[in-house]
Amino acid sequence: MPETKVPPLFNELSTQLEPTEDLIQTPLHIKGQHAFLLYVKSVVEGDKLQQTVIRPFFEMASEESFASYIQSLPNQTKIPDKKELLINISSGFVLIAIRENHFLLDISLVSNNEVQDTMVEPTVHGPQKGISEDIDTTLNLIRQRYRKPSLKIETIMADDNTNRTIALLYDDERIDPDMLKQVKDRLDELDAPLIQAAGDLQHFINKRKFTLFPSTLITERPDRIVYNLNNGKVVIAIDGSPDVIIAPVIFFDFMSSMEDNYHVFSVTAFTIFLRYTGLFICLLLPSLYVAMTSYNPDILRLELALTVAGGRIGVPYPSFIEVFGMLFFMELLTEASMRLPKAVSGTATTVGGLILGTAATEAALTSTIMVIIISAVAISTFVIPINEMSFAIRVIRLFLIVYTALFGMVGLLVGFIGLVMLLANKESLGVPYLRIPWVNKNEELRMDKR
Amino acid sequence: MPQTKKRMKGFYSGIIVIALLLQTGCAFKDIDKRIFVLGVGIDPSEKVEDGLRVTLKLAKPAGDVKQEAAQSFSYLSHDSDSVAQAFYDMETHVDKKLDLGHNRSIILNKELLSTDLDEPMDFFTRRGGTQLIGYVAVAEKTAEETVTFAPDTEPPATIALYNFFDDTGTESPYVVTTFLFEFRRQALSNGKNTVLPIIDFNEEQGHFIVNKSIVLKWGEEPVELTSSQTKHFNSLMNKASGFNYNIQEDDLHLVLSIDEVKMKYKIITDEGQTPRIDMQITKTGVVSESNKRLKSSHLQKYGEIAATDIEKKVMELLTMLQENDVDPFGFGLRYRATRLSRKDIMEDWKRIYPEIEFNVQVKVNLKGTGIVE
User: Fold this and answer.
1) Total number of domains constituting chain A
2) Interior angle at CA A215, CA A214 and CA A219, nearest 5
């Protein structure tokens, strides 16, 4: 009986992986049967390893039967080249050697696989659970909801420094192949040192350095994912991120909430109306204030003009600095309440919003109407259902204020037209950004290949 | 080193951009640096020969509207050769920019009406802010007194004179409204004479009285309409609602409240006939006061009584206007519009109008006695 030696591959791999405390390389032997295991302890599920590999080894009659047993396991995968093998081992694969044969088993331990509540896009009706930070759980959740053989999942190993898994999901029957190719090309070309979340990835897929509007949509809602898959869009999931990317998108996707589908027509119509009103309010109101108080007070009704003029008595700075200042404080407040722990954020809003607002008017630093405008703007910013868009709007309205401060009402109009032109010029993976979806919802759902 | 240099460059340009963003455009003027002109009164000047005295009513914004008892105004008067000159002179009398963008009332002195009005009104028709929103009116007393008069019913942040004319406040058939652009249009075109409201005020009781009007004859003495004539004219011409009508027939006394008025007319100039105007008037309303018990079955009868009475009044008005050779209804305009255009069409009309006959038919539909039976 020849003395069983550690396979050369093992030595080679372990020298590359060392020094790591949690690298385990164990030989198993009983009655002349030998096997070798190589894995990283902290990412491998110990119990499962014990159950599926170690115990059967001691119960099997021969090495051959153990080998064929291992080969039949569902989590057994082909052995890739050495570089990828190293990545696999460090992400929770176990390498098994039986004589000259090597097997690779996926026994990774995933502790972030709980399904998250929908935090960013909550709805009253509809699913209350989002997806998971673990990509397998996410894929599971999507497959569970979209049971069609035509749903294809392609995984790509990200070429960054953390080697995350990126999964590409699409409905083969509905997707536009050109668009799919474009997405794949973009993912292949990906050249980023570190990709941590869907937002990150979106930024790199986007390619452009300066963008005002998001050209892909990030969501955490499984119902939105399924809805978009059904409409022939690509969903990109990345391991470790609780959101996925949906592409291509149009502007109006950002303005729709999934809840629109769950209500009766009148309610939906009303909420959509509210949402678009909110959009225009938070985009235009600060600039309108500047335009109306400083350039064209004739537009206002006389009563309002006199009240505004009265409110501005003693305000030391011109209107647009007043607006910038108040908006700045409002943005600080929004930012602060987002970053603060939940227990404290309530206090921050009260102190910032109520006390500061009242004090500012008392001290004649701003006019009362300004405070009303700022709060209206702050509230209506949150009416936009997708956060990315509301962030974008927050930035864009500053540009509009600059335009208005320079050229008044005309400037506001020119700025707004410029904005529309920008939107019309933009495209998301070949789809015009401002495309108006004329088809109604049912047709859209039934739509086959375009 | 070039790295640092590049960064410094970026830093400086950033600062310059931020500094530029704090600049404003040329027309930028905050609302508290403007003062709104809410009324302009034009009188003939006593100091300057052939000059005008212009009075401006300026609104003083109040810090807290709720706590003020009444709107506070300040007034500026200045004598000069022309309105524009006076206005530019007065710009040196206030520290704020005079903003005509909210000016809706232009009040003229009666004496000015018989002179050439082109010159004083020219400034306003050229001025962008006020040309489409201004109302023109005539002061019973002087324009200065009328403009500076503040009625008791004027709460802060409103102005009583506006509410009279824009139908947001009072709606009365006694109040005629003439916009500046109408004034201009009618002044320049042939076939229609402008009607302007006359504003009077009662100083003791602190209120305005707007119930008369005046018909302009360009460059000549204007024709004043009594308040009853004004009412009839306004209800026919502008379909003014809230028309009240008082009928005295034998011992029956009725007050009708008419809420719908329809008027159409036709100018008939057939060969061989005296030219005439057929006018059909339909008024619909209810009885609002009576000294007797009324029966709804007799409604038609009351309507007929009212119709004959109204017919008489309208005839009187039309003949009076004809005798004075003024045409506020715009019959001449209609004649011009419906006849083949030729060079001396207005000369023809001027010949026809003094001898034209009026044929007025009035129909009064009473919808009810106003009482629930």
Assistant:
1) 3
2) 75
Q: A210 in helix, strand or coil?
A: coil
- A450 is a domain residue: no
Same-domain pairing of A305 and A244: no
- CA of B85, closest CA in chain A: separation in Å? 23
Q: Does B67 touch chain A if contact means CB atoms closer than 8 Å?
A: no
- The model carries a pTM of 0.82
Task: Say if strands B252-268 and A23-30 run parallel, antiparallel, or are unpaired.
Answer: unpaired
Q: Is the dihedral of CA A326, A330, A332, A333 positive or negative?
A: positive
Tell whether A186 and A237 lie within a shared domain: yes
* A396 and A420 fall within a common domain: yes
Instruction: For B162-188, write each residue's pLDDT tens digit.
Output: 888 877 777 888 888 889 998 888 888
Could you tell me if A165 and A288 lie in one domain? no
A408·B65 Cβ contact <8 A? no
Residue A424 in any domain: the answer is yes
Residues whose CB falls within 8 Å of the CB of residue A242, separated by 6 or more in sequence, listed in order: A116, A130, A131, A132, A133, A220
The beta-carbon neighbor of B62 closest among A310, A314, A315 is A310
- The structure tokens listed for A142 are 């999507």
* Claim to verify: residue A165 and residue A42 sit in the same structural domain: no
Task: Please tell me the distance from the alpha carbon of residue B229 to that of residue B235, in angstroms, as a whole number.
Answer: 10
Integer CA distances (angstroms), B137 to A74, A426, B121, B143, in order: 95, 55, 12, 9
Question: Closest Cα to residue A360, out of A400, A333, A396?
Answer: A333
Whether residue A119 sits in one domain with residue A99:
no
Q: Which residue has the tokens 């729709």?
A: A256
CB A349 within 8 A of CB A334: no
And the tokens for B180?
Answer: 């500046």
Q: Note the pLDDT tens digit of each residue in A125-175.
A: 888 888 888 888 899 999 989 998 999 999 887 777 778 888 999 998 888
Identify the domain containing residue A18 by its residue range.
8-106
**Do the beta carbons of residue B184 and residue B125 sit within 8 Å?**
yes
Task: Give dist(CA A345, CA A352) in Å, integer.
Answer: 10
Query: Are both A24 and A87 inside the same structural domain?
Result: yes
| One domain for residues A168 and A306 | no
Report all structural domains of chain B as residue ranges with CATH numbers, in order of start: 29-225 (no CATH), 239-373 (3.30.300.210)
Interface contacts A/B by beta carbons within 8 Å: 88
- According to DSSP, the residues that pair with B34 across neighbouring strands are B97
